[in-house]
Amino acid sequence: MAIEAQEIEDLIRSTFPDAKITITDLAGDGNHYAAEVIDESFRGKNRVQQQRAVYAALKGKMDGPNGALHALALTTKVPA
After folding, report:
1. Total number of domains in the chain
2. From CA 41, how far away is CA 68, in angstroms rounded?
């Protein structure tokens, strides 16, 4: 089951409304994406905490073999 890049962005944006979000479909199959999320709320958090927050925003879309999103290469940053 594939997922659209816009749906991924919408899910992330629901938790991080002011973030700069870039979604890239890596394989053109709707299953392998890269996401860059830049948000002020990451300040003072380590990389693991930042990424866990983004994965939580995906509301289970990556959970297990039946998840709609198979792979997400995630980069999180604090605005410069």
Report:
1. 1
2. 27
